[in-house]
Amino acid sequence: AQKVTQAQTEISVVEKEDVTLDCVYETRDTTYYLFWYKQPPSGELVFLIRRNSFDEQNEISGRYSWNFQKSTSSFNFTITASQVVDSAVYFCALSEDSDYKLSFGAGTTVTVRA
Amino acid sequence: EAGVAQSPRYKIIEKRQSVAFWCNPISGHATLYWYQQILGQGPKLLIQFQNNGVVDDSQLPKDRFSAERLKGVDSTLKIQPAKLEDSAVYLCASSLDYATEPNTEAFFGQGTRLTVV
Whose C-alpha in A3, A16, A60, A75 is 20 to 30 A from the C-alpha of B84? Predict the structure, then answer.
């Protein structure tokens, strides 16, 4: 069963627009961790954020913000005032305390046009 | 701090040939991972090492794939013989000690893009 669902395959925006990436997860563990990674064209996955299941506070880091809602099993990611350099594939991932393995979603390709 | 190094970046082989990939993790990282990323999909864990021991290889096709981390630092992943469906990017990642920090973030290399023709 898919543990992490990223329903949006591709999103295309014009520079300075906001873009929100959806992530829905599934787990029976009470303790788990959620991650977002960015994969630019160069190929490496760049770590953006880790959130544990007990911390539902939203987080903002520069133009990035994350909205964690346990009630809907979602961990959405918003890029504010997007820039061309934000163009990449973004992956949401889940790590459960029962096995510690990172399960990735299929990714959302974001294209920011100048 | 140097990141995770992988080589080669690209490899094209014919089916039934063999291929090997190399990974050098971040210094001091006890845990090393190999992931397979098929085009359009998220990475899938193949094998996880803790120092030179295997923690998880449940998704490694052991009839054709093998991996080792003999001295607890560098690692190699081998495919023999390769099939067309092995075409993918093979990503190596490392993290701090999995045993003491089990859900810490992993740092990834740029990957090796394998094309099997």
Answer: A3
Whether A84 and chain B come into contact, CB under 8 Å, resolves to no
pLDDT digits 0-9 by tens, B39-69: 989 999 999 998 889 989 999 999 999 999 9
Q: How far is B29 from chain A (nearest CA, A)?
A: 16
Asked whether the CA dihedral B53, B84, B19, B8 is positive or negative, the reply is negative
Cis peptide before A40 (omega within 30 of 0): no
Convert the pLDDT of each residue in A43-60 to its tens digit: 889 999 999 999 888 888
- 3-class SS of residue B84: helix
B36: nearest CA partner in chain A: A104
A49 and A36 Cβ atoms separated by less than 8 Å: yes
Query: Cβ separation of A107 and B41 shorter than 8 Å?
Result: yes
CB atoms A44 and B3 under 8 Å: yes
Distances (CA, A) of A71 to A31, A56, A94, A96, B50: 15, 10, 16, 17, 35
A98 — alpha (psi -120 to 50), left (phi > 0) or beta?
Answer: alpha
